[in-house]
Amino acid sequence: MVQTANRNKAESALGELLSGNKRYQQGALQKCVFNQQAFISGKSGQAPPAIVLSCSDSRVPPEMVLDQGLGDIFVIRVAGNVLDNNVLASMLYALTHLGSRLVIVMGHSKCGACNAAQGAYIQSQSGGGQSKGVDPVSQLLAPIIDTCGHLARNAGNTGGDLKNSIPVEAIVEQNSIATATSVFQALQQNLSGNEILGEIVVAAGKYDLDDGTVKVLKRWPAKAPRSALQKNLPKLVLLGVGAIVIGVKAFKSIR
Ligand SMILES: [Zn+2]
Questions:
Q1: How many A from CA of 253 to the centre of ligand 1?
Q2: How large a percentage of the chain has pLDDT more than 70?
Q3: Ligand 1 center to 52 CA (angstroms)
Q4: How many CB atoms within 10 Å of residue 167?
Q5: Does pTM top 0.90 for this prediction?
Q6: What residues flank ion ligand 1 with Cβ within 5 A?
């Protein structure tokens, strides 16, 4: 991605989602309510700045936990928030036709899909047969089971007490990051040469069922670009301090 591109829309969308999550934590939803104006403007089209890929878990509705209303977010939900061609095609549609610029993958604590993947991986490692079958559930879990394997190898554990070395919460976080990494790579391939590629921010996040917080685990590009004011703030402060020192000295010299 081009680092100098304008990602203001994506950055402000991310800020808005995190602000919405703060309102949710405080029990002060503002946007996740029926809004007549949004309903009427929705008749003539949509322009959601953000795409949210989340798990289908009934406890994690993105519109509610991020306090967003009609037309605000383009939501794709699938158990385990994994990426496949249908999910990618939906993202590409929103990016190229609706003007979305932020893609956030939102995993969540205590995820049943991650729990099932952990079980399937442990079973495969304990001689219980293959971890990946051809049935629909196994196919859905396959990328999460791969993540379990990476985590187990990183923990230096290919046997023993796997349940402790790859806890579900670690799988949840790594799965969100792995999915977002795949999204980032797929967008680079599919939008190669398209100028909007430089305007997109991809983020991996996690919703915590215990306290209702959404935190960003990783993002591409890594950090929001600093504004000209932020960049020059240290110089301006130094100049200001210098001016005060000179002023005080001049004041003392004329006394
Ligand atoms: Zn889940």
A1: 71
A2: 82
A3: 14
A4: 15
A5: no
A6: 55, 57, 111, 113
